[in-house]
Amino acid sequence: MTLRVLAAMSGGVDSAVAAARAVEAGHDVTGVHMALSSNPKSYRTGARGCCTLEDSRDARRAADVIGIPFYVWDLAERFDRDVVQDFVEEYAAGRTPNPCLRCNEKIKFQALLDKALALGFDAVCTGHYARIEDGVLRRGVDPGKDQSYVLAVCSREQLAHAMFPLGDTSKADIRLEAERRDLQVADKPDSHDVCFISDGDTRGFLAKRLGTAPGKIVDNDGEVVGEHEGAYAYTIGQRKGLRIGRPAADGRPRYVLDISPVSNTVTVGPREALDVEEIVAERPVWLAEDQPRGLFDCQVQLRAHGEVHDSTVELDGAVLRIRLHRPAQGVAKGQAAVLYDGDVVLGSATIAAAERVPA
What we know:
Strand order of the largest sheet: 12-15-14-13-16-17
Mean pLDDT: 91
Low-confidence stretches: 44-49
Distance between the termini: 60 Å
Helix content: 25-40%
Largest sheet: 6 strands, antiparallel, barrel
């Protein structure tokens, strides 16, 4: 069946090949590049770019080679509100957000998809490394590039209008395919880090938005060991850049264990104090056809490209209680807990609390 497909073209190799594959599959494809900044020079450029003028031009050239119509849609205001401001507010609240996850949820599969459907398109095509089979979201076959984690916040209804043509292919083969198709982006490096922080300095970006807010750094016994200029500049599990005035008594490195925006304190301690066994996650989104009931076993991923943990999960109203069979480290409030059954995504929820292993 021929579909009217809107191909989201970022200017990178993945979205270009995805659009080409959609055309090859016989669909009526239109390319669109999302302009996400009112001042593109403030975003990353060059090899580490994303969402820049350079990317827009690369996307247009790829569309010309593929032979499809191409447009640029201005979503800068929506992106600033739903992704950039959310990023700042989450850090201010002591949480660690994932802006790529939020961009998928709010921009690509809400703002973009809503507009596409209103214009009569049947689906949105992207270059994500994931698969949809019989309405089920699955991991991409390339474990190093799998992006099912950042798609798990989308609803079943949104994914019903999504196409991921790259999910059955490795990144290396996608680059070779792009070269065969004469796409100039075949060797373009992947984008990294946060696209809207031009110099990669997250601490500096947040300081400009939130100002300085001096406070104490304490060890896990409550003793003051240093000072900070803003608790928002720290993340759970962080080791470097702590600005601690003196070493631990045992000489071992210290890590960020907790961030309290209320008391404006950052708590540090030994690595083993990062061990977490139980997680509470809120606002679950279910992608499985049958929503789980009561206690059930599954695998849980707590970071994009992070380790997968065998777990027992209980759905308690609108809250998930996750018991890890083996402790995890670096579990941060604000990140997503994504539930899997093998390579099938069951659903996701936002981490609200983590209980550490008793000493």
